[in-house]
Amino acid sequence: MSGRHGPAEALEALRAHQRQTEALAQIAGRLSWDQETVMPRGAAEQRSEEMAAIEAVLHARRADPRIGEWLEAIGDEGLDARTRAELRLVRRAHARATRVPERLAAEIARVTSVAQGVWADARRDEDVGAFLPTLAEVVRLKRDEAAALAGEGSLYDALLDDYEPGIDQEWLSALFGRMRPRLVALRERVLEAAASVPLPKGTFPPEAQTELARACATAFGYDWTRGRLDFSVHPFSSGSGDDVRITTRIAADDPFNCIYSTIHETGHACYEQGIDRAYRLTPLGRGVSMGVHESQSRIYENQMGRGRGFTGWLFDEMRGRFGDFGISDRDVFYRAVNRVATGYIRTEADEVHYNLHVLLRFDLERDLIEGRLDVADLETAWNERFERDFGRKVDRPSNGVLQDVHWSVGLFGYFPTYTLGNVYAGCLWKALRAEVADVDDALAAGDPSPATAWLREKVQRHGALLEPVDLVTQATGSVPGEGPLLDYLEEKFLDLYG
Amino acid sequence: MSGRHGPAEALEALRAHQRQTEALAQIAGRLSWDQETVMPRGAAEQRSEEMAAIEAVLHARRADPRIGEWLEAIGDEGLDARTRAELRLVRRAHARATRVPERLAAEIARVTSVAQGVWADARRDEDVGAFLPTLAEVVRLKRDEAAALAGEGSLYDALLDDYEPGIDQEWLSALFGRMRPRLVALRERVLEAAASVPLPKGTFPPEAQTELARACATAFGYDWTRGRLDFSVHPFSSGSGDDVRITTRIAADDPFNCIYSTIHETGHACYEQGIDRAYRLTPLGRGVSMGVHESQSRIYENQMGRGRGFTGWLFDEMRGRFGDFGISDRDVFYRAVNRVATGYIRTEADEVHYNLHVLLRFDLERDLIEGRLDVADLETAWNERFERDFGRKVDRPSNGVLQDVHWSVGLFGYFPTYTLGNVYAGCLWKALRAEVADVDDALAAGDPSPATAWLREKVQRHGALLEPVDLVTQATGSVPGEGPLLDYLEEKFLDLYG
Contact B228/A34, CB-based, under 8 Å? Predict the structure, then answer.
């Protein structure tokens, strides 16, 4: 036998290596789940060492020089689409793992783990100045990382590529540029009428909220034999393949918090659960990008969960479970679910405001990474932009520049995927309504399955086989753009509050 | 810089490597916890791949050839006791990982994972014949493994060494040989009088049982900030350092099941929680052997938990929580907790019978591994021995040779550590009662802390610093033997039922 592998042998070796890596990545994900749901609080310090150990193993496996040798031995002749996609994903992960010097990666891990605590303290104390030196350090390190990754390309694109491959800031910037004026205009047209919408009043016992959340997840097709529901401070979905868990949270006076968090996470989870089982524990066996992931969670939560049909069913469910909660009929309930109000906080924003929060962050973080904005000027830039788009002044840093954890932990390039998810959701919703006849009737009966079956077929089952934009293009027949989302928002909210 | 490490540099490199290995081993343990408590049932197949992946990583790390080079570079000059102990443990794990050929290890993993299912089916069907070919295969593979490990030594000792380092079958055999006649005689003297003991009657709501279990764990010193209580089919304790979790189970009509399972697992967990924090994520940072581990769980459960003092406190607790449950006073309650009855099942056995179950298994498994007993003759050998020691015939295989999972998964050499744990517990109990004045009064007030403080100081805090027999010898002032345990059993049960 020669020292060099034949193509078939190399492919087999690469796949065996990769399968173990995928399994270990699932374990790392489960550890995070454990940390956020059940871990004893005294275990935090030890856990951070455990996480670092498995991340180090994962990094070493992705950077393994044999991957380069295998890829070379495999070549690119006569490969089927699936294999080509697998190799593309392995090659990308390998490149990312090898381009960033180990010392820089370790430094980023060290600094961001400390930075999160500094940020949390600064937010608590409403003290931007206390966070800025640390943020400057994080920005500097992320710029170094981006430079190592970027080669000839732009710094911000190199970071963006980690969350949304195949997208660049130029395209995003044009897309967001078209969205912003329409969103600002829509906001101004609906605000006044939306102000008088009532909120649910009453007692909403945690057990009953949990039962309703479970009923919603079940309605949206969550497979309980391959998942479970728990509680955490920030709801999330976690895991791929046969173990995809979701969490929610309970606010005693606001049942919508639990319900819509659950439906949102159910969207993420159904995406993972809906991937072709043949892809399990391969690079294809998980959602392809943050944007496409968010498209599923948002279309479940908003287009379906906050639509007129489903909220009718939900109103009856709530009356049955909670009795009278101060909302008299389905029409008022539909408005209550779709209340529009200008708030400071992105995560609490309604559909009209949400993307304006994201667009603001995108522009600022791009300027930080590209060196056009100094962290010293960040708060001013934030506050000016906020006042321009939202028509009010930021009252304190925790309601402004200090509200999100992302930058402290080095997540630059992540924010735009939230809006991209909404844009994709808009495109998918338009296409599925054109193709599936009984969507509205079924939703009104509490049955999203005609819609979710279409999403599973067109999007979910493919896992990471196609690049994000190709996937949405194939599913909808058109290259994704802002039109369908904005048409949907204008139609819905002008009908409600126009 | 030369290619070879200096001793200090090599020690540092070895420790860094080992620390990551320990962290990964903790992760593997947490995965098992997850599997037994919260994992969705549909995730089983994927989980087995995840477990295999992390076990492969652990094996590769333990077998890493650099460990041999580091150990050589470190040498054995001028090392302190702690470092010597660390290196001894690393060397042993490295030797075990490298001596067994990878193909054999993989074959054992494959066969035992299937064998467990074959055993479960055979037990359900009461069909020994259906299990024997698989058992023969497991025995053959374990003999091969033992031969690879043993070098010049005996096969059984090589397997035993994995669970109880420093012990050999000759010593064990002599110890157990002295125990057997005294246990058989004690059994015969107490059986008749013990037959008339009443059992608790009534309703024992799961929530109240759980609360009482929590109260017991708290009383015995379990640190809830570094652990948690869940439910599983078979109770267990899991993890080391700052994340040591326990499980229990609820039988609606038998509150003792939950209470004593919990106290038992609390003993295991307090051992791990009691280890010097400086040893965390090092080879010293976990219980030194299965035998010493079992000594802690059994002394918590039996010498303390089933003693006259603590059962008095427990009786009052139960009356307060469950009302009248058919037992009128503390004396009768003490007898109810210490009922003696001949049963078939080891895990349900009382203190008088328990070790006779173990001695039977020790003799049979030793003969299987040493080639003196064929699996075809195993059932007959089991049934003859059972009738001789227990005075009754085995009525069906699930009550006899098919009752335990151990052999199906390759756990040969594990059974004797149960009795060894009881023997150590006997020695420790004698010594601590001689040294600590107020043990009984405190236990009668529901406070085991004087006793547990002694155990923490003498045993638990040392982790794996000393070999098991050395640890017990240092703690008690004598080489461990059967005397104290048998004296304790005879005194307790002849007092009760003599």
Answer: no
